[in-house]
Amino acid sequence: MKRIAVYCGASKGNDPSYMSEAYQLGKTMAEKGYELIFGAGSVGIMGAIQDGVLDHGGSAIGVMPNMLNEKEITSEKLTELILVDSMHERKNKMAELADAFVMAPGGAGSLEEFFEMYSWSQIGIHQKPIAVFNINGFFDPLQSLLSHMIEEGFIDAKYDTLAPLCDTTEALFETIKHYKPLGVRTYD
Fold it and tell me: Domain with 18 in it: what CATH number?
């Protein structure tokens, strides 16, 4: 495993610890020899992770749709920038390049990108590790929703650990390292 895609926000959040923990995630990625695959933004959580990676000798590969490249603040520090024509191409390229998927705090876009990888795992498109970096318990409500969906029979119970919440970078990398595929969804 060499590359980790991180889905996260282009905003900082209200608590400074989001940015400091995101930077620490990038730093740890670089120290462990992982390359960052991400949305190529230079601000918010995206920028903090990128800076943590690059400040510690790592590699950051950004994937940016042309339409957003004209509107957003695309990083100028990237190891490599890949421009694509659409959001669909961005997600496909990130999935193709990555060996694992992590979600850090962000908004609707982060959820959408991450849950595509979550559902793709369920239907067998990939069997790569998935984890959630749960800074400050940010994703605790999401875990409650997933547990509710399992209890109500809309997600197979075997996927209870498909995207574990990790409160520290150490837990995150241990989760990725020891990932075991859960198999494809069955239909009753």
Answer: 3.40.50.450
